[in-house]
């Protein structure tokens, strides 16, 4: 049977290989947090991880390959979802987790570097998108449970609610420079919960027979 060869850094290793991967990814994260994507160098990562340069070049091949594997590992290692029994409690737990991550001296700088890299490198962007899809999907059940409890309307889009929680926090980190504190995290959760209860995230089915273009034109006419 033919087996497709995996891209560098995409296999799930064990034993010594797992220890090498852990050391290299940790070193890559440190280097990114300290120097940014533009200065990331595989030889420097190998030195930091105390492994041979040949090992790093053979396994990951390129800086983007290494960064993609780092993001994959971060998604796999992320903390599990908290269940509090209420939508607001769950969303606050999510917001506070994002807050702790983004204000951590190492993790905050690491995310800035990864987001900056994703703006100019397709593979890094794909890996970053996968990371966030994984995190959003992990927290989406809290919204589905809220629908089941009658806290929010049926048809509420779980993914949009979770995005609404973290978006203001990333905006503070990357754009506005406003304080990114726990109070801001709690306000983001409260706003998302209130909007969800009001039906802001309910998915509305398009009228039967209306095409995507027609929906766009209809919306533009309504806005005008």
From TrEMBL:
Q: InterPro entries from the entry?
A: Homeodomain-like_sf, HTH-type_TetR-like_transc_reg, HTH_TetR, Tet_transcr_reg_TetR-rel_C_sf, TetR_C
Q: Does the keyword Transcription regulation apply?
A: yes
Pfam families in UniProt:
TetR_C_11 (PF16859), TetR_N (PF00440)
**Per the database entry, which stretches of residues form a coiled coil?**
none
Q: What is this protein called?
A: Transcriptional regulator
Q: Which UniProt keywords apply?
A: DNA-binding, Transcription, Transcription regulation
Q: Which GO terms describe its molecular function?
A: DNA-binding transcription factor activity; transcription cis-regulatory region binding
Return the PROSITE patterns for the record: HTH_TETR_2
| Signal peptide residues on this chain, from the entry's feature table | none
Has the keyword DNA-binding been applied to this entry? Answer: yes
**Can you give the residue ranges of the HTH tetR-type domain?**
18-78
According to the entry, DNA is bound by residues in 41-60
């Amino acid at each position: 049977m033919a087996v497709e060869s995996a891209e560098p850094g995409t296999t799930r290793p064990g034993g010594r290989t797992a220890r090498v991967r852990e050391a290299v990814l940790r070193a890559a994260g440190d280097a990114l947090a300290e120097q940014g994507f533009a200065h990331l160098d595989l030889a420097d990562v190998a030195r930091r991880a105390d492994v041979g340069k040949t090992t790093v070049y053979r396994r990951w091949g390129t800086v983007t390959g290494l960064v993609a594997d780092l993001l994959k590992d971060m998604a796999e290692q992320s903390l599990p979802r908290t269940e509090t029994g209420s939508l607001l409690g769950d969303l606050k737990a999510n917001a506070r987790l994002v807050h702790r991550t983004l204000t951590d001296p190492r993790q905050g700088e690491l995310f800035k570097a990864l987001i900056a890299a994703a703006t100019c490198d397709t593979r890094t962007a794909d890996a970053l998108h996968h990371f966030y899809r994984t995190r959003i999907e992990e927290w989406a059940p809290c919204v589905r449970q809220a629908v089941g409890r009658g806290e929010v309307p049926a048809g509420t889009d779980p993914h949009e609610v979770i995005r609404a929680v973290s978006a203001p926090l990333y905006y503070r980190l990357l754009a506005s420079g406003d304080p990114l504190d726990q109070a801001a995290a709690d306000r983001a959760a409260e706003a998302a919960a209130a909007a969800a209860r009001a039906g802001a995230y309910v998915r509305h089915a398009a009228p039967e027979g209306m095409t995507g273009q027609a929906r766009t034109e209809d919306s533009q006419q309504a806005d005008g």
